[in-house]
Design brief:
Layout lengths: L15 E2 H13 L9 H12 L2 H9 L6 H9 L6 H28 L5 E6 L17 E5 L3 H9 L2 H12 L11 E2 L1 E3 L3
Antiparallel strand pairs: 1-4, 2-3, 2-5
Helix pairs in contact: 1-5, 1-7, 2-5, 3-5, 5-6, 6-7
Length: 190
């Protein structure tokens, strides 16, 4: 695409891709367990979430938590502790299952029966860019009405699809949409 940045940050601009900021905000809305998985309380909370029903156990196995039921019972009882690698698997499986569980709810909340959600786009940080190379990029707001592709890509963990879905929405900014490929933050609420 002609508006895509090829050498972002060459002159000192700082920011992140817009779709990464959207994913960060969706993660915040998902309401993950705050206690880290390395703490006993956080581990138990995640294990209870992943094993509370047959459906949850199947989703956890599909997400990569492939340990025996005996091992899960030992972890829950506290007789054995998971290795560092298994802690990472538990955290990854928990986040994947949580995303899948809240995706439908978030899509409905963000679409608001076709009214959409107001999104604030904070431009890149140009404080380190020399004065002659700075450009005027203002704070923008827009109303996003179609969140289905964005939330589905976020729930699946597909960065490329999330980027494409987000760019399809940002194009509504008109001829300046390429200035918002990289941003400081993207804010919205559900």
């Amino acid at each position: 695409m002609p508006e895509r940045n090829i050498e972002f940050g060459k002159y000192g601009a700082r920011g992140i891709k817009g779709h990464e900021a959207v994913a960060r905000q969706l993660d915040a809305l998902a309401g993950y367990i705050a206690t880290p998985v390395t703490a006993r309380r956080g581990l138990l909370a995640r294990l209870h979430y992943l094993t509370r029903s047959d459906h949850a156990r199947q989703a956890a196995r599909a997400a990569g938590l492939t340990v025996t039921d005996r091992t899960l019972r030992a972890w829950l009882a506290g007789t054995r502790a998971p290795s560092r690698k298994n802690l990472e698997r538990i955290e990854q499986a928990y986040r994947t299952v949580r995303r899948e569980n809240v995706a439908r709810y978030l899509t409905a909340r963000l679409n608001k029966e076709g009214r959409g959600t107001r999104v604030e786009i904070h431009p890149i940080n140009q404080s380190q860019v020399g004065r002659p190379r700075q450009r005027v990029v203002e704070f923008r707001t827009m109303n996003v009405r179609r969140w289905d592709r964005i939330v589905a890509a976020w729930a699946a963990g597909d960065d490329q699809e999330l980027d494409d879905a987000w760019v399809d929405q940002v194009v509504d900014l008109g001829s300046q949409w390429g200035q918002y490929e990289y941003v400081t933050n993207v804010g919205f609420a559900a």
